[in-house]
Design goal:
The protein has one domain. Helices cover 70% and strands 8% of the residues. The chain is built from five helices and two strands. Strands 1-2 form a two-stranded antiparallel sheet. A hairpin with a 5-residue loop joins β1 and β2.
Length: 135
């Protein structure tokens, strides 16, 4: 379990998204396909496609990553460094890979950036608090 905490969750999401994008001939058609298509009790027609599901998963991962940032240990610093590398891969792929130049991938890239910034900010704040308590 300890080693799993080193793995940035956005790295897993990046891996899954890349597999899904390159596994199909036309990613635009594949991701616009609905995975949930139902009518709610209110009568509203609800549809959820794969792109929207990826954003929902990304939001949940962002919450978990921010929660992991509370730790002030060596493993947290390794996690932050890995998260920074994952963000750089997101950014480079968004700019360079044509199939990944879509709004959904941009949103995931921004979430990864927020993860990096929040991780370092929270860790620095927690470290300051630890130092002031110890003094």
């Amino acid at each position: 379990m300890k080693k799993v905490s080193y793995v940035p969750l956005f790295g897993i999401l990046l891996f899954v998204y890349n597999i899904m994008v390159f596994a199909v001939d036309d990613p635009a058609m594949a991701y616009s396909r609905n995975i949930i298509d139902t009518t709610l009790i209110s009568g509203a027609h609800f549809q959820l496609n794969i792109n929207e599901l990826m954003i929902i998963v990304g939001l949940n991962f962002l919450y978990l990553e921010v929660f992991k940032s509370i730790r002030t240990s060596i493993s947290a610093m390794i996690d932050h460094a890995l998260s920074m590398m994952v963000f750089i891969v997101y950014l480079v792929e968004f700019i360079v890979v044509e199939r990944l130049g879509v709004a959904t991938f941009l949103i995931l890239t921004v979430m990864s950036l927020v993860d990096v910034i929040a991780g370092f900010t929270i860790s620095i704040s927690a470290a300051r608090r630890d130092i002031s308590v110890a003094s």
